[in-house]
Write a structure and sequence with these properties.
single chain, about 190 residues, mainly alpha, 6 helices
Length: about 190
Amino acid sequence: MTITKSNGPLSPEQQEELALANARAQKILAATKVATFNGWTIGAFAAITLPFALFSLTALVIGVGMAIVARNEFHGRGLLRRFDVQGPQLLGRNQVGFMTLISGYCVWSIYSALTHPIPQLEELEAAIGWTAGLVTNLTVAVYSVVIVLTLVFQGLNARYYFARIKLVQGYLEETPAWIIDLQRATAVL
């Protein structure tokens, strides 16, 4: 009995088309790795924050907000793996929402530090000999820096995701339907 090597059900031309499509898809699929990292990282911070919700309404809002952002990252990743244009749209909007959540928390913290100083910190400042209001000024400075960094990092992340929209649209236009159907059917969610 002679064993022959089979090239599978695809012709050599179809195999070449599939290989080229897979190569073109790499820029799109790279965003799924970013979404995976974001989802797990934000989810971990949500899990750390939520136990404090027993003692703080702010922690509840932030923890639930981060849990929603993490869930959206995973959902958007799944859509992106299926070459659905809604994936990068959701991921980009999700980053804008996350930016708003973090910035809102920082603004709230600055407002709280300015309007409700902690008497124990004022006593500590006097006892150590620090200038009155130093802790409040440092609080404002730190949260202001966090706002700026959030605008930069989450803004760039949102821009990255939004840029994938045109890549997905172009990919869908250039790629034969049978390849897209195959990739969608075999996408690991």
